[in-house]
Write the structure tokens for this entry.
Amino acid sequence: MESRVDFLLSQDSAAVKASAAFQRNAQIESIRLLESQCSVEQQFPEPPEPLSLSLALAPEVLPLSGSRAGFAIRLSVEGKPAGGLPEQGPVVRISGRFGLTYRLNEGYQPTQAELDAFKDVNAVFNCWPFFREFVQSMTGRMGLHVSPMPLLRLTSKQQPKPLDAQAEHNAAEGSAPSERSRRRTPRTAQPRK
């Protein structure tokens, strides 16, 4: 299975700080597969060409249990022939839901913001190697000899740049920007024809 796109996760600076607070106060205790589902089209032969992959994530925070925090992360990948028609459905589907348990330091009670920030990136990163191995194992059992899943990459979320007051007013009014506000409004480059 080859990916035509990178698998990216991103967080803004506030989420990075909240996640770091959880990391300082927790140790991973276990990762286990809770449920799985796999399918391949019956008439689909060994792929003659790379598969284009799509990834879906569904992380969730589980209720706190004493000095333990838990997360459930559902990861699903679908593969279509890279040269196939856009309306063609996936020929391979693999999904796994992983349970992650973290032991919390004595006296630490994570906030909901810390739990949410951690589940969205760190918990996904922690179970990604298990999912990659699961996909590799299942595709082998399906008779598909494919490349390993790509690594996850982390990027920072870009904060939108605020408009100046005149541009905001014009946008609200639906009018064109004044000459003065046009000079302060950044322009985007247009491709040459």
Observations:
- The chain has a mean pLDDT of 80.
- The chain has two domains: 7-150, 161-186.
- Helices lie at 13-24, 112-120, 122-141, 165-173, 179-184.
